């Protein structure tokens, strides 16, 4: 079986998760090259993982004919140009979420990959998490009857960076954390989102209210699917207590809970007769194995010539849902997802 030679483009926070995976954890793949526009980031990455070729410009990287696939983990504003150039150079494309800045760009990436007959997988790693996959197979088995309502939440611990306060750039929590929930809801529902109503408020950063009156750190969304199923998503940033991603699926004959707030199954009881457990610190920790399985699935889809589990269409629909969610929040009305 041919080894799939990969080039990681972007060696930052999320990039290094993939670098460590492709550096020996993924069957049938090799981390042949890495590329980062920042020489310091590239040097630090090359000190941690082995890659034969190092590039500061992705245009040079994709000229390397030994490279079969690119893993794009550069900032989102560069995804379109890198993905299209890679597809046109006949490289398979894995692209972190969000696939692009907007739906038009996402469609251009999808078209370029289709035209060049290369795979395109988008980085919604929750679909590869063992608990989410178990829930999906229980849903598909009919064990909880017909799905009626799906609830999903993501809360992030970190203080927002300054640029995030301008929600026309960041989309706020709807874009920063809830794009994963939109994808999970669509996946579990097996139906497209028909409408969204979102309300939000800024509870944790009152000092920016004057400069950024639209900024919100907490959002609640009510969703209707095309086939009539119902959905609810909540999102929050700067919650501080930890990273929290959970889902509840209600059916006509039962319900499924996915996830909890604990880092591991440890509960501490003390002499004050209090019980505590460590909270989940980060998405890197919670989805550690899901990222490995996601990368393995990408390589398997190339090796076996199969459609990736998370497609360009899924990436596009999440971008659309984020746009409509934000529009609903800003205009305070139900928005139909065309
Ligand atoms: N799946 C997830 O849960 C998840 C989590 C975090 C980030 N992401 C996504 O991953 C992407 C990167 O995010 P991050 O947090 O790792 O960012 P980051 O800023 O930590 O890293 C980005 C890296 O890309 C490099 N870079 C910038 N421009 C480049 C270019 N033109 N060519 C090559 N390298 C370039 C930067 O120097 C930096 O090292 C974003 O699209 C983000 O949304 C996804």
Automatic annotation (TrEMBL):
The source's domain of life comes to Bacteria
Q: Which InterPro entries match?
A: Gfo/Idh/MocA-like_OxRdtase_N (IPR000683), GFO_IDH_MocA-like_dom (IPR055170), NAD(P)-bd_dom_sf (IPR036291)
The protein's matches in Gene3D superfamilies, at most eight in alphabetical order, are given as: Dihydrodipicolinate Reductase, domain 2, NAD(P)-binding Rossmann-like Domain
Q: What are the alphabetically sorted keywords of the record?
A: Oxidoreductase
The residue ranges of the Gfo/Idh/MocA-like oxidoreductase N-terminal domain are 4-124
- Domain annotation GFO/IDH/MocA-like oxidoreductase: ranges: 132-256
Signal peptide range equals none
Name this polypeptide is given? Myo-inositol 2-dehydrogenase/D-chiro-inositol 1-dehydrogenase/scyllo-inositol 2-dehydrogenase (NAD+)
Q: What is the lineage of its organism?
A: Bacteria, Bacillati, Bacillota, Erysipelotrichia, Erysipelotrichales
């Amino acid at each position: 079986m041919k080894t799939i030679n990969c080039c990681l483009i972007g060696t930052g926070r999320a990039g290094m998760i993939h670098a460590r995976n492709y550096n020996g954890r993924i069957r049938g793949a090799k981390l042949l090259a890495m590329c980062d526009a920042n020489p310091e980031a590239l040097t630090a990455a090359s000190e941690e993982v082995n890659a034969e070729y190092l590039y500061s410009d992705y245009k040079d990287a994709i000229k390397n004919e030994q490279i079969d696939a690119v893993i794009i983990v550069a900032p989102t504003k560069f995804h379109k140009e890198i993905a299209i150039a890679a597809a046109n150079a006949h490289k398979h494309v894995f692209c972190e979420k969000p696939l692009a800045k907007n739906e038009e760009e996402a469609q251009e990436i999808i078209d370029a990959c289709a035209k060049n007959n290369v795979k395109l997988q988008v980085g919604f790693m929750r679909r590869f998490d063992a608990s989410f996959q178990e829930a999906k197979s229980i849903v598909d088995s009919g064990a909880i009857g017909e799905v009626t309502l799906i609830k999903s939440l993501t809360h992030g611990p970190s203080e927002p960076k300054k640029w995030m306060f301008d929600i026309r750039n960041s989309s706020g929590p709807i874009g920063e954390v809830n794009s994963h929930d939109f994808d999970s809801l669509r996946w579990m529902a097996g139906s497209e989102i028909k409408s969204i109503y979102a309300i939000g408020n800024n509870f944790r950063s009152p000092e920016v209210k004057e400069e950024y009156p639209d900024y919100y750190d907490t959002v609640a969304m009510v969703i209707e699917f095309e086939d009539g199923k119902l959905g609810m998503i909540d999102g929050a940033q700067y919650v501080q207590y930890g990273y929290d991603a959970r889902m509840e699926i209600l059916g006509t004959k039962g319900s499924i809970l996915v996830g909890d707030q604990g880092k591991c199954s440890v509960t501490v009881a003390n002499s004050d007769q209090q019980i505590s457990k460590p909270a989940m610190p980060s998405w890197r920790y919670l989805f550690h194995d899901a990222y490995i399985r996601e990368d393995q699935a990408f390589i398997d889809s190339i090796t076996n010539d199969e459609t990736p589990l998370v497609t360009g269409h899924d990436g596009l629909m999440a971008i659309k849902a984020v746009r409509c969610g934000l529009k609903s929040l800003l205009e305070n009305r139900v928005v139909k997802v065309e």
